Amino acid sequence: xxxxxxxxxxxxKTRGQQVTLRCSSQSGHNTVSWYQQALGQGPxxxxxxxxxxxxxxxxxxxxxxxxxxxxxxSELNVNALELDDSALYLCASSFSRRxxxxxxYFGPGTRLTVL
Amino acid sequence: xxxxxxxxxxxxxxxxxIASLNxxxxxxxxxxxxWYRQYSGKSxxxxxxIYSNGDKEDGRFTAQLNKASQYVSLLIRDSQPSDSATYLCxxxxxxxxxxxxxxxxxxxxxxx
Lengths: 115, 112
Fold this sequence. Notes:
The structure holds 2 protein chains of 2 kinds.
Chain A: E1 5-7, E2 10-13, E3 19-24, E4 31-37, E5 44-50, E6 53-57, E7 64-68, E8 74-78, E9 87-94, E10 96-97, E11 100-101, E12 105-106, E13 110-114
Parallel strand pairs in A: 2-13
Antiparallel strand pairs in A: 1-3, 3-8, 4-5, 4-9, 5-6, 7-8, 9-12, 9-13, 10-11
Chain B: E1 4-6, E2 11-14, E3 19-25, E4 32-38, E5 45-50, E6 54-58, E7 61-66, E8 71-76, E9 85-93, E10 99-102, E11 106-111
Parallel strand pairs in B: 2-11
Antiparallel strand pairs in B: 1-3, 3-8, 4-5, 4-9, 6-7, 7-8, 9-10, 9-11
């Protein structure tokens, strides 16, 4: 196990609703990245948080937003849910220094289903 | 052009054989390369990282990197049925905010 935890493990929402997913990073890590993995695809980078600030963002709309807290845990918020948001959401924890990021370790993921 | 490309497979090998998984990447400035294994319904788990040209061995796994050809591979020796999974290649590009780019993964089945 990596020491990265995510909650909840499964979630069912309807279109238009909002959702918050949570991630606790591995001890000693200061960077959290979020990914969306659709069925049969590789993980797609959503954004990364380093020292409580967004440090890079993939090609996702503004309704995907996040936070990082002083203890380096993180939240992913998605507003106005769409059917295509149904996916496995992965949080990855790593240690970064001077702009260089070390290996990422993944949490177990949150399976989101939008009906 | 995708940042990272892998053959989706499926790749089938008999138990005890060598499985060879390949990955190409498009951006020459990429510096760090990773192989993850993902079992169905689970999250990716790190197998190996490689940063320099050449081979890196860890047990039954060998990662090979050729930056000139923009190519990274993973060899699995003495393949076991428990190696049956999807293998994801990931590339770190420091010019895009340390974003990790993943391939779509190669599905490997080891036949007993």
